[in-house]
């Protein structure tokens, strides 16, 4: 049912980025340099769909606001990190299209409760520092098994042909 977004010439990749410490958002290091290289080596996305390990919900949700807030979902870091605002636009039309196209699950629209947590913006900021690529985020239904998420991912795959970069962000452990 993905009729609204046109097909594009390039199939976007899917990336899994272990985002590590939130400090990566304000430091230049081997990780952030690598993320910048990746962003420079792929076609420019029309939007990014983040799936962050930090938005665990009952049910599956996708952010659908025009201006997602920057969420500082951590503690004990310097004030400079809390001062970061990643002002990327959202993409409510893309969120609605994702919600409408998924058949194996009900994907609810979040129109303001969430935003972009550090699992998303701490990776996006080094990759696209001017925040010029619209970004939305999809939650992980903590109450569903891995197979549920695998099947959901298969349904999202078609958006890669429409210029949507899908980034899974998280870590098994946070090496701080």
Features:
176 residues; alpha/beta; four-stranded parallel β-sheet; two-stranded parallel sheet; 5 helices; globular
Structure, explained:
The chain has five helices and six strands, in the order E-H-E-E-H-H-E-H-E-H-E. The mean pLDDT is 92. By secondary structure, it is α/β, with parallel strands linked by helices. The strands form two sheets. A four-stranded parallel beta sheet has the order 1-6-2-5. It has a two-stranded parallel sheet with strand order 3-4.
Q: How much helix is in the residues?
A: 25-40%
- Number of extended strands: 6
Specify the overall morphology.
globular
Share of residues in strands: 15-25%
Low-confidence stretches: none
Largest sheet: 4 strands, parallel
By DSSP (H or I, 4+ residues per run), the number of helices equals 5
Order of helices and strands: EHEEHHEHEHE
Distance between the termini: 42 Å
Average pLDDT taken over every residue: 92
Radius of gyration: 15 Å
Indicate the structural class: alpha/beta
Strand line-up in the sheet with most strands: 1-6-2-5
């Amino acid at each position: 049912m993905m009729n609204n977004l046109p097909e594009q010439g390039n199939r976007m990749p899917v990336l899994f980025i272990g985002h590590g410490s939130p400090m990566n958002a304000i430091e230049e290091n081997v990780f952030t340099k690598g993320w910048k290289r990746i962003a420079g080596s792929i076609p420019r996305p029309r939007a990014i769909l983040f799936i962050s390990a930090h938005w665990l919900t009952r049910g599956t949700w996708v952010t659908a606001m025009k201006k997602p807030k920057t969420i500082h979902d951590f503690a004990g870091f310097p004030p400079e990190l809390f001062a970061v605002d990643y002002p990327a636009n959202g993409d409510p039309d893309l969120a609605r299209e994702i919600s409408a196209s998924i058949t194996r699950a009900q994907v609810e629209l979040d129109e303001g409760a969430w935003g972009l947590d550090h699992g998303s913006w701490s990776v996006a900021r080094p990759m696209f520092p001017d925040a010029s690529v619209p970004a939305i985020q999809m939650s992980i239904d903590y109450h569903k098994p891995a197979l549920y998420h695998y099947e959901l991912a298969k349904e999202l795959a078609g958006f890669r042909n429409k210029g949507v970069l899908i980034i899974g962000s998280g870590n098994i452990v946070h090496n701080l």
